[in-house]
């Protein structure tokens, strides 16, 4: 089980509200000692997401400061928190339904 599909429901009271975001999560042989690779399929505008949808390890604390005890649920919940952060919750977003 190395390839996973993830889903995040946009947090309320943000530009993400009522949106569903799809992601791919890939765990290689070094998981859980090293973080998985996380990429959005749904287009999103967040500081921790690169131009091709890849979650940038150096911009996302959960991956940057990875702990063996973290799970894929941890990653998804922390991304949702990032979406709801005051600095990010009003960022303009690509059209709903657009993908990378």
TrEMBL record:
<dbReference type="GO" id="GO:0000209">
    <property type="term" value="P:protein polyubiquitination"/>
</dbReference>
<dbReference type="InterPro" id="IPR000608">
    <property type="entry name" value="UBC"/>
</dbReference>
<dbReference type="GO" id="GO:0031371">
    <property type="term" value="C:ubiquitin conjugating enzyme complex"/>
</dbReference>
<dbReference type="GO" id="GO:0010994">
    <property type="term" value="P:free ubiquitin chain polymerization"/>
</dbReference>
<protein>
    <recommendedName>
        <fullName>UBC core domain-containing protein</fullName>
    </recommendedName>
</protein>
<dbReference type="Pfam" id="PF00179">
    <property type="entry name" value="UQ_con"/>
</dbReference>
<dbReference type="InterPro" id="IPR016135">
    <property type="entry name" value="UBQ-conjugating_enzyme/RWD"/>
</dbReference>
<dbReference type="GO" id="GO:0006301">
    <property type="term" value="P:DNA damage tolerance"/>
</dbReference>
<dbReference type="GO" id="GO:0005634">
    <property type="term" value="C:nucleus"/>
</dbReference>
<dbReference type="GO" id="GO:0044395">
    <property type="term" value="P:protein targeting to vacuolar membrane"/>
</dbReference>
<feature type="domain" description="UBC core">
    <location>
        <begin position="1"/>
        <end position="100"/>
    </location>
</feature>
<dbReference type="GO" id="GO:0061631">
    <property type="term" value="F:ubiquitin conjugating enzyme activity"/>
</dbReference>
<dbReference type="GO" id="GO:0000329">
    <property type="term" value="C:fungal-type vacuole membrane"/>
</dbReference>
């Amino acid at each position: 089980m190395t390839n996973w599909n993830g889903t995040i429901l946009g947090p309320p009271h943000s530009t993400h509200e009522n949106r569903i975001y799809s992601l791919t999560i890939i765990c290689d042989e070094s998981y859980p000692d090293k973080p998985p690779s996380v990429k959005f399929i749904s287009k999103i505008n967040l500081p921790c997401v690169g131009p091709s949808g890849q979650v940038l390890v150096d911009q996302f604390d959960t991956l940057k400061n990875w702990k063996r005890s973290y799970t894929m649920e941890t990653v998804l919940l922390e991304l949702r928190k990032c979406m709801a952060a005051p600095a990010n919750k009003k960022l303009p977003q690509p059209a709903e339904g657009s993908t990378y």
